[in-house]
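Example (one chain per record):
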Amino acid sequence: MVNRHMRTLWISGIMVLMLLPANLARAQYTHLIKPFSARALSKKLAGPPQTSADTPLTQKRPFRALLMSAVLPGLGQAYNKTYWRMGIYVGVEVASWFVYVDQTRLGRKLEDEFQQFADQYWSEDRYWAALSAESGIDINDMARLREWERQNFSHHLPEEKNQTYYENIGKYDQFNIGWVDARAHRARDSQLREQYTFMRKDSNDAFENARLGATIVILNHIISALEAALTAHLQDQRVRGSVRIVPKRVNRDIVPALALRVTW
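Predicted structure:
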């Protein structure tokens, strides 16, 4: 084949005759190929050699390899017998799932801790009292106070303690007065608030690491599947072989020989 390395292994159909003296070879040769004489055999083999079409020596199915690694990274590599690559993809898969599970657990633990901290040290009563004094609205008229809050601030305090609630009280200065150690409204003089901010950051960092782990899991499946399919395709095209019978001259006689051609 063009642009392929070729190795040709010749196996003589009557190799044993090649190792015998010439006279003995003729006698054995005549016995083995009856009813053909040496001349008849020579004529018979004078034409084109009988060949078999090149067939792949490996039968790799790229789509199967792709599906296997898409389900579980490393399976397609095992199918292709590229075991060191299988080890890499399996290792990445295990490590990524470990990071996701571990960091998710840590993030939830830290989230519970900063929420309990806020419930203990941030007071809604202090906050609404400050807004009541600033607006002149009776503190018992919560509907008017909330409306005034929305009109005069870019952020408001949710009625339920949800994610926005716990984010706002530590992030924006308008909620500073709610911290029990704060002295000024719309300032940043609370040490408890600073501590709370770092607690939330640690929790958010853990959740971010968990998201990174999940992203790597997805990418590992995609890359492993594509690599397995490509490798299977290359392996299927790389090694091919054919077998044919060709005439070969031994001393003065022409004998049939079996030729095995392997290309890669």
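Caption: Residues 1-38 have pLDDT under 50 and may be disordered.
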